[in-house]
Amino acid sequence: MKSADRLLDLFELLARVNGGLSHSAITAALGIPKSSLTQLLKTATGRGYVAYSAAGKSYRLGERFTSMARLTSRRQDLVGLAQPVLERITAQTGESAALNILKGDDAEVVATVSSSQRLVSHMRLGDLAPLYATSGGKIILAHMLQDRRDEYLARVRFEPITANTLSSAAELRRQLDKIRRDGIAYSHEEFTPGIIGLAKAVLAEDGQALGSLNVALPAIRYTPRAEALIADALDEAVAELHRRLASA
Q1: Does residue 93 or residue 81 have the better pLDDT?
Q2: 20 to 30 Å CA-CA from 95: which of 64, 87, 106, 147?
Q3: Burial of 247 by CB count in 10 Å (0-12 exposed, 13-18 middle, 19+ buried)?
Q4: Are 27 and 45 a contacting pair, CB within 8 Å?
Q5: pTM value?
Q6: Residue 89 backbone dihedrals phi, psi, to 5 degrees
Q7: DSSP, residue by residue, 112-157
């Protein structure tokens, strides 16, 4: 806990100054022993949270903070723009559609439209699912910054939600590689028995996923024709959201 407190103290200190601070100035301000501060700064600079200027021999907040703030703002924009786009997906495919965003180690449904068919998958606002178990979660994970993705893969514990749920980091890693190549993620009855999911990512400028659009349908209606129709509808929806975000 002491190291976590020191890290937060460091960030708050650097946020209050312009032009950065030297190692000795940070030590004096925070009372952290020099050797401990050296390790703390090494970790923070390695992750991009702190930047070092060799010319001024000083430290300042890094680009990672700017990136995170921008990502949060763009996610809020995305949620506001999503509903009519989801309605169009459902009109084109006849299936339920949702927008998901990252929440901890889960994907959260933040906008949704349900199919009018009798046999339907309902995705409700606020629903949470592990990233490894749904199409919308997998594609968010696939586009996560590599250090964060590796950290997740090192600690994730796989709950056997259904008989088809992934059970190893090695298999998940293999799927994530394929998702990044193909641009689409699938969940074959891995979170809900009898339900297939397909998802594509809405990306930020740095390549991270602002969120994911997914369609969920009963396995009995999942055919090559349905898959192609859904993939095309998701492509159109993602392109439209990228255009709207660019002009927001």
Answers
A1: 93
A2: 106
A3: exposed
A4: no
A5: 0.74
A6: -60, -45
A7: EE---SSS-----TT-EEETTTSHHHHHHHHTS-HHHHHHHHHH--
